[in-house]
Amino acid sequence: MLQHPIMIEPHKRVLETQRMMVENQVYYLPVIGDGKRLLGMVTPPRLAIPPEKLGSLDVWEISHYLSTLTIEKVMLKGKDLHTIGPDATMEEAAERMIEKKVGGLPVLDRDVVIGLITDQDILLKFRDVLGATEPGMRVVVRIPGRRGEAVRLTQPMLDRGWWIMSLVNIRSPDRKATGTLSSRSGDAPGKNCGRSLRPSRGTR
Fold first, then answer.
1. 72, 84, 78, 82: which is closest to 33 by C-alpha?
2. Do 44 and 26 meet the contact criterion of CB atoms below 8 Å apart?
3. Distance between CA 73 and CA 46 in Å, rounded?
4. Cβ(82)–Cβ(103) under 8 Å?
5. Assigned fold of 2-126
6. Does the predicted model carry a pTM greater than 0.85?
7. Cα dihedral angle (57, 60, 66, 68), rounded to 10 degrees?
8. Where are the domains of the chain?
């Protein structure tokens, strides 16, 4: 998560908030009260003024309306505001975002904002888990969902001195396991080790 995210108070004007979000390149902005207690959340779409609200106003009235409109009147709050705790796992955060159809969650400790996690944070961690930032060889193998199959797959690599940087097990729709394995040679980072891999019995 992002610790110490940029936050804003509810009395701030919308125009000022728009500038702040652009200058700091942020999409989610927690709205806080006394003691950094969460009151709401704003995103760029929440700051967009619906045309029907301005249709009957002249230029001067529109200017006055925009200059006095505050965050308190446009922020997400109540049942539309979704959060998560600091002890939640990455999987739980991802599941909450999918379930609630949101891309960011304030992280609360006793109603106090201590961080912010977004879908971008989860994608970055997912990239790291798959070993995408390290040179090496990526192998995708379909193996039976039986005990010991992962050992049979990886032991020959370990015996040859290769490093296993990442091993991810994903269930396919037919409930068979697909292993995504990232590795590299101990003496030559990035060396192609694909020829020495042998599929476990029953693989395709």
1. 72
2. no
3. 10
4. no
5. CBS-domain (3.10.580)
6. no
7. -110
8. 2-126, 130-196
Beta strands in the chain (DSSP E): 2-3, 29-32, 38-42, 104-109, 112-118, 137-143, 163-171, 177-184
128 to each of 9, 105, 116, 166, how far by Cα in Å?
35, 21, 19, 9
- pLDDT tens digits, 61-102: 777 777 888 999 999 998 889 999 999 999 999 999 999 999
Residue 172 clears pLDDT 80, i.e. is over it:
no
Tokens of 15: 């125009």
Closest residue by Cα to residue 143 from 108, 179, 168, 117: 179
What class has domain 130-196? Answer: alpha beta
What tens digit of pLDDT does each residue of 145-166 get?
A: 778 888 888 888 888 888 777 8
- The tokens of 120 are what? 């971008």
- Number of residues in the chain: 204
pLDDT averaged over every residue in the chain: 80
**165 with 131: CB under 8 angstroms?**
yes
Region 39-46: what's the mean pLDDT? 93
